[in-house]
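Service request form, structural biology core

Requester: graduate student, group of Dr. S.
Request type: structure prediction, single chain
Budget code: on file
Notes: please return the result as structure tokens.

Sequence provided:
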Amino acid sequence: MASRRAAGDGRISLGRALIVEDDALVALDLAEALRDAGADQVVVCGSITAALAELEKICPDVLVLDVRLADRDDGWSLAELAIQLNPAPPLIVFSTGTPDSIPADTAALGHVLAKPFPPAALVRLVSENRAPSGLLARLRGNPR
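Core staff response, request fulfilled:
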């Protein structure tokens, strides 16, 4: 898991982010915003299939999921898988134009941002909800 150390300019790192979004312009805006805010690595996937391949390579600290994708309309299933695969589950953000379509038990796995939203809203949510890292966090029971 990536540590959330201070970036060279004093910002706190947001770790690694995986964005699963089939609208290329939205994906690029979100990726740029997370990079500018201090993400160490941002990977963008346009489908569940591509995201599954990335989850085999990286353990993201942040997972941004479009709920309705071109290849599947249940993007939240990827969130459930990411939680199962990672010893320290990622911060999950569901991105959707239909927030009421997400089952309540699934929405409880993360945060829901209703589209359209400004990329700054994602950055704010991630920054406010990122887990503390380091020795004190581990002593308090937070493995990040």
